[in-house]
Design a protein that fits this description.
By secondary structure, this protein is of the alpha+beta class. It contains eleven helices and 21 strands. The strands form five sheets. Strands 3, 7, 8, 9, 10, 11, 12, 13 and 16 form a nine-stranded mixed sheet that branches. Strands 18-17-19-20-21 form a five-stranded mixed sheet, sandwiched between helices. Strands 4-6-5 form a three-stranded antiparallel sheet. Strand 14 and strand 15 form a beta hairpin. Helix 1 (about 20-30) packs across helix 8, helix 2 runs antiparallel to helix 6 (about 165-185) and helix 2 (about 45-65) crosses helix 8 (about 295-305).
Length: about 400
């Protein structure tokens, strides 16, 4: 990609209302643009990050046997009334009447819609278990959207739903999803805590939240500094030692980047979802849901990986692998750019007629993992510098390509 052709430019000043590093740098770096409070456009750089994260999530969900689909964002009132959630979610769900006077809402979540599909299509144990997922925008009427895309009124989410005829089978799959989620976050460069949380009105079992320790977070969790034990403070009792290993308990702010939840037979009872078991008996179709905030992950990664100059993207999610900067030798830089592309190295080529200082500042702000400079001083070689490093290395083009 030629930087001179990149839609939208970097901004010298951060947004006035930016209270977090991710909000500041994602707007200033040209990744997102605010349309109104809590509603953002994902610009080309930001969309590339979104796609990289989404592809990681897709790979792991597909490996779990998940089938991808897409459900409507606009949903009829009657399905939500079956579970009582048309009324209980009234404060956060956008609800309205269409021109014919029928009431509908914008998706705050999709449990009712997927369960309606299941009860109309699944009738036998032979069709179970199965899991289905989507990556889609959700809408929630947040009274105080804040933190840029960290908490918005419109946001992108991956939601997976699994269906089973026995609790034992559900438990097995539920634990497998826990492991898959850890792989997702690891691949995105994040170390998360699996925190037990309240099961709410649906189940006596705990749900589980995937929490990222960060001062920019809105949640409070308690966790062991030695092992993996953690709980949301809402359910945590006052303890000083870990109940698992006896380690010291710490408390911290965190960002919730995912959650998994067992509904059991709640939806089967409310929405009449039953299937014939192998013994000929009708049994409730059990459901669990598993969510990952895709757009929140973008902000979370930027929150963890940044310095005073800008974002430092992990290579797995970065918008490009290489930021090629030309300082006055455009013809040679163009040849290098074409060779990098031919070798499947995604490259943002700064071909602008700008000063070296401006180009370097923008490179630090945007945060692509490797900066490659070509100039008269490099004498035909490439000056290579990691975004998270200080030292530079001189390599030939062939050496650089071979090193990747």
């Amino acid at each position: 990609m030629l930087q001179s052709r990149l839609f939208t430019k970097t901004q010298k000043l951060p947004p006035k209302d930016a209270a977090s590093a991710s909000h500041k740098f994602l707007v200033q770096g040209g990744f997102v643009d605010m349309l109104m409070a809590g509603v953002y456009t994902y610009l080309p750089l930001g969309w590339r990050v979104i796609n990289n994260i989404s592809n990681i999530v897709r790979e792991e969900m597909n490996n779990m046997g998940g089938q991808e689909m897409l459900m409507p964002a606009m949903q009829p009132k009657n399905i939500w009334e079956e579970t009582g959630r048309w009324a209980s979610l009234e404060e956060i769900m956008y609800q309205f009447k269409d021109q014919s006077g029928k009431e509908a809402g914008l998706a705050a979540t999709h449990e009712e819609i997927i369960y309606d599909l299941v009860r109309r299509n699944i009738h036998s144990y032979k069709d179970l278990p199965f899991a289905i997922y989507q990556i889609q925008n959700k809408f929630r009427n947040e009274p105080r959207p804040r933190g840029g895309i960290m908490r918005g009124r419109e946001f992108m989410m991956k939601d997976l739903y699994s269906f089973h005829l026995s609790q034992e089978d559900l438990d097995v799959y539920y634990n497998q999803v826990k492991e898959a989620y850890i792989r997702v976050y690891d691949r995105c460069g994040l170390k998360v805590k699996i925190a037990e949380a309240s099961g709410g009105m649906f189940t006596q079992k705990h749900s589980h939240e995937f929490q990222l320790i960060s001062e920019a977070g809105e949640d409070d969790i308690v966790y062991c500094e030695k092992c993996d034990w953690a709980q949301n403070e809402e359910i945590a009792s006052k303890i000083e030692k870990c109940p698992v290993c006896g380690g010291k308990i710490r408390k911290g702010k965190s960002i919730e980047v995912g959650n998994i939840f067992q509904f059991g037979d709640k939806y089967a009872k409310d929405m009449n979802g039953y299937a014939m078991a192998s013994d000929g008996q009708k049994k409730p179709i059990l459901m669990a849901s598993y969510g990952i905030g895709i757009s929140r992950l973008v902000a979370s990664i930027a929150e963890i990986y940044h310095d005073e100059k800008g974002i430092i993207w992990p290579e797995s999610v970065a918008p490009f692998q290489v930021h090629l900067i030309s300082l006055g030798r455009n013809e040679e830089a163009e040849t290098i750019y074409q060779k990098l592309i031919k070798n499947n190295i995604s490259t943002l080529y700064d071909d602008r007629d700008s000063s070296a200082g401006e180009k370097f500042a923008d490179a630090d702000l945007i945060g692509i993992p490797e900066r490659v400079v070509i100039s008269a001083k490099t004498k035909g070689k490439l000056e290579v510098k990691k975004r998270n490093g200080k030292e530079t290395t001189l390599l030939t083009l062939e050496e650089f390509i071979k090193s990747r």
